[in-house]
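Bug: C-alpha cell stream looks shifted between consecutive jobs. Job 1:
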Amino acid sequence: MRKFSISDIENLTGIKAHTIRVWEQRYNFFTPKRTETNIRYYDDHDLCKFLNIAALNESGYKISRISKMDNAEINLLVKKLQEDHYNINVQVQMLSNAMLKMDDHEFDEVLNGCVNDLGMEKAICEIIFPFMRKVGFMWQVGTINAAHEHFATQKIEQKIIHDTYELKSAKNENSKRFILFLPPQEHHEVGLLFAQYLLKNNGHRALYLGQDMPFESLGEVVEYYEPDFVFTVLTIANSEIKLEDLIHKIKEKINDTPLILAGAQISCNTFSPIPNTIFIKNIQEFIDQVHHLNGSAYK
C-alpha cells in the first residue's frame, strides 16, 4: 500500500490541497491517516476515491451532491461516465485515472471502448493525442514519473499495432509507397504507428523502420525501396543537432523523394519553404493529406 502526501494528491488529481482540507472538514469525505510523527497521508484506496470524485466534479456533479453518495454509488456513476465515449473530456480523464493507478485492465477498457465507438482516426485525434499532450505536461511538472508515461504509451502503441494487423488490405488505384522512420534519438512511436495504420487503412504501402534509424541506413533503404514519400515525426529537441540541420540531413539521404514532417517540433516552430517538404502541424492535416492521395495525384 503506497503512501501519498496531500501535495501528492493535489498533483495527481488536480484538486487543491486547501480544497481537500475544506472537503474533509465540511463533508467528512476522508479521515487521513497519520504517521508516527503526526504527518497526514493517504493510501491507494483514498487516491482512487479522489480520482473518482475529480471525474464526477469535472463532469458537472456538485461536491455537495457527491458528498452524500456512498462508494458504490460513486463507482457506478463513474462507470457510466466511462461508457460515454463521445464525451472527450471525460475519456481523457478516465485514461489519466487509469494511468495514475497503473490499472492495466481499466486502461484497456477505456481505450478499447473509445476506439470501438469512435473509430481509430477519431479516437486518436480527439482523445488519444489530447491525452498524450496531458501526459507530457504532467511529466514535465512532476505530477507523474517516467513509469506512468511509459505505461500509457506502451498501452496505446500495443492497441494501434494490434488494430493495424487486424486491418484487411484496402484497394486503392492511387496507392503510394511510404517509408516511415524516426531519426536518431527519437523514440516516441505513437504518431509513427498511427501513420502506418492510416496509410494501410487507405490502401497505401508503408515500410515501417521504427525508432532511432541511422541516417546512412535510411539512404540505402530509400535507394532500394524507391518510395513515393518519406514520413517522420520529430518530437524531442535534439541536443546534438539543430532542427533545421536535422531536416537538411534527412533531405540529403532521401534525395528528391518528398519528405513529410510531423510532430511537436514541427507544430511549435516556423519554417521557410523547403522543396519537396511538407510540414504537418497537426494530426488532422496528415489525415487530410492521406485522404487527398486517395482521390487525386498528390501535388
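Job 2, same session, no restart:
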Amino acid sequence: MFWVTFVVLMDQLSKMLIERFLTIPTFVVPGILWFTYTKNTGIAFGMFARSGWIVWVTFFATLFLALVPKFVKCSTLTKAGLQMIVGGAIGNVIDRFRLGYVVDFINLRYFPAVFNVADLFITIGGILVLVSLLRGEQPLDNKGEQE
C-alpha cells in the first residue's frame, strides 16, 4: 500500500499548492513545460464533462483495481503498478467529491491535454503492469516468493 499512500499524498499536496499559489500560467521549462491551473469536469482529455455518473464509475473501477491483488496472484511489479493506478484514481476521486472537478496543472507544449500528478502515476502504473505482463513475470506466493 506504499504506492497508494505516496501517490495520493503527492497528488493532493501538489494540487493544494497549485490552487493556493498559481494565479497565472508559470513557465517551468520555457517552450516545453509550464504549470496552468485548469478545472477538469470530465475524465481523460475532458471527455464526459459535467457527467455526474462518472464519479461513481471512477469510484467503482478504483475499488475493483484495489481488490485485484487480493484475489489474483500478481508479481511485485504488477502490484506496484496497480497501487500507482489506484493511488492516482483516489487522488482524482477526492477532487471530484470535494470540488466537483479535478485540478489539472501540468501542461506540456506538445501534449494535447493538461494533466496532474495522479494522471502521471496512473500512466506509469499502467506501463509497469504492461511491462510485467509482457515479460511474463511470475506471481508471488503467500511468502513473497515466485512460484
